[in-house]
Each structure stands twice: as structure tokens, then as C-alpha cells.
């Protein structure tokens, strides 16, 4: 039996939200190279914006320039994340005003039907398959690690004053190890990369409903347009729910 050819479309949207004075999130993608990245920066002044931008730019640069080097793609992707970490750490070492800056990162790397998801911190990747939403990444955060060890319930984690504490980030140390997960894409899958400004405001069920919504095919005739409309709905819903942080989402759909 011949393997089904899968093609991908993507859309993205970012917003500073209703409370923050600036947007420290960054995103970037290349459909041609199968690379999609979201980063959520942290640090004083504009340092968070610097860190997230460096992370996205470096991962895209490494993976677009090194794709034909003969290195297996998941290994190349991990090297790209480590290179981004080194670039942020080195920049902070050279500029005292940027000391302590860092960023989360979640990346989706695709080769035909093979999908790899890499993450550092609490930016997430989800997959909608057959109308069911599933979180594919594990947060590197204090409360989520407590939940996984059975020391805290999900409800307690949502209320915890420590829920913003992340245990792994790019740029805060000279070395970092990303988690890497491998999946197979099916036609119809929708992958969502997002910063925590989205997931802190919207429960998974609300995200699932928006991603699975049936849009007007006459008003939105192509897949890219429907993805963009869903991005807009997700961001607007997160803002209506409070919009306490910057909000970013990238949607990637596998088309048969």
C-alpha cells in the first residue's frame, strides 16, 4: 500500500494581551523546511523580547541551513536548540543590561509524515486528531513537575502562587537539554504551538472546541484561511478570559 502524501499549511497570531505593556513572545516558521517555533521571553526591560527573538531566529537559521548536511533531523533539531541557548547566554554575558534573560521554546519539525516536537520550559504543543485535543509536551515548571510526582493536584497547580516558576529555560545557563518527542502525522491533524498566555486563560476543552469548529467554507475557501481564523479566535478568547500575559499560537494542519 502506498504511503499517503501529507502536505502542510500554517497560520500564526501573536498579541501582547490586555495587561502587559509589550510583547515578549516570538514565533517563526517555514512551511517549505517544515520548521515551526514559538518562544516566550523573560527578563527585565526589553531582555525577554531579545531572548525570544534570538531563539526563534537561531533555530530557524540552523535548521534551514543545515537540513542537507546528512545529520538525522531530530539530532539536528536538538543541536539547533542548543545553539540558540548558547547564542542567548553569550549575548547576556556581553551586555550587562541583558543579564538573566531567557526564554521558553517549543518547536515542531516535520519531514513528510514524521513529526518531532522539542520543548524547553512551559510553552506547549498540542495535537487535535479526530476532534480530540492532546497535549504532546510536558511543562518544565515547578507545579507541573509536582503534579507528575503526585505531590499536587491539577486544581492546586492552577491556584499555586508558584505556577509561573519554570525549571528549564534557554539562555539562563550555558547548556540546556530539550525534551524531544516523535510522532506520525495523519491527514487532518492540527498541531498547535503556543505560549502559556493562551493555556493559562483557556482550558483544554475550550481550545479543543475552537480548533474543531466548522468554519464557513464559502467565506474561508482554503485551509490557510481557516487556520488563520482559528488563530484569531483562540487569541481573542484568551484576551476575553483575562489576557494577563502575551498570547501566541501557531497552527499547522496536515492535509491529505
Strand order within the widest beta sheet: 1-10-9-6-7
Unreliably modeled segments? 216-223
Largest sheet: 5 strands, antiparallel
Label the overall shape.
Answer: globular
Any overview of this molecule?
The protein is α+β, with helices and mostly antiparallel strands and 256 residues long. The chain has a single domain (7-255), classed as PPM-type phosphatase domain (Phosphatase 2c, domain 1), CATH 3.60.40. It is built from seven helices and ten strands. The protein has helices at 47-65, 73-94, 142-148, 154-159, 196-199, 204-211, 223-240, and strands at 7-15, 25-30, 35-42, 102-111, 114-120, 124-129, 132-135, 179-184, 190-194, 247-255. The protein has a five-stranded antiparallel beta sheet. Strands 2-3-4-5-8 form a five-stranded antiparallel beta sheet, covered by helices on one side. Strand 2 and strand 3 form a beta hairpin. Helix 1 (47-65) runs antiparallel to helix 2 (73-94). The longest helix is centred in the N-terminal third of the chain and has 22 residues, at 73-94. The model is unreliable at 216-223 (pLDDT under 50).
Amino acid at each position: 500500500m502506498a504511503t499517503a502524501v501529507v502536505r502542510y499549511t500554517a497560520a500564526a497570531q501573536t498579541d501582547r494581551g490586555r495587561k502587559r505593556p509589550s510583547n515578549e513572545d516570538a514565533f517563526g516558521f517555514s512551511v517549505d523546511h517544515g520548521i515551526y517555533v514559538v518562544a516566550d521571553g523573560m527578563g527585565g526591560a526589553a531582555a525577554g523580547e531579545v531572548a525570544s527573538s534570538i531563539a526563534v531566529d537561531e533555530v530557524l537559521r540552523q535548521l534551514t541551513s543545515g537540513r542537507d548536511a546528512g545529520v538525522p533531523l531530530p539530532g539536528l533539531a536538538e543541536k539547533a536548540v542548543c545553539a540558540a541557548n548558547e547564542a542567548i547566554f553569550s549575548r547576556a554575558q556581553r551586555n550587562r543590561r541583558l543579564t538573566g534573560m531567557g526564554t521558553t521554546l517549543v518547536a515542531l519539525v516535520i519531514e513528510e509524515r514524521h513529526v518531532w516536537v522539542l520543548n524547553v520550559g512551559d510553552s506547549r504543543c498540542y495535537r487535535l486528531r479526530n476532534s480530540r485535543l492532546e497535549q504532546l509536551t510536558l511543562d518544565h515548571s515547578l507545579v507541573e513537575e509536582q503534579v507528575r510526582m503526585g505531590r499536587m493536584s491539577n486544581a492546586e497547580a492552577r491556584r499555586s502562587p508558584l505556577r509561573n516558576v519554570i525549571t528549564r529555560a534557554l539562555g539562563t545557563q550555558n547548556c540546556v537539554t530539550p525534551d524531544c518527542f516523535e510522532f506520525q502525522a495523519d491527514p487532518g491533524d492540527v498541531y498547535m504551538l503556543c505560549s502559556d498566555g493562551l493555556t493559562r486563560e483557556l482550558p483544554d476543552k475550550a481550545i479543543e472546541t475552537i480548533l474543531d469548529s466548522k468554519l464557513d467554507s464559502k467565506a474561508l475557501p482554503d485551509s490557510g484561511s481557516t487556520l488563520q481564523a482559528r488563530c484569531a479566535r483562540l487569541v481573542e478568547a484568551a484576551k476575553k478570559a483575562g489576557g494577563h500575559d502575551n498570547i501566541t499560537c501557531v497552527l499547522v494542519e496536515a492535509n491529505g
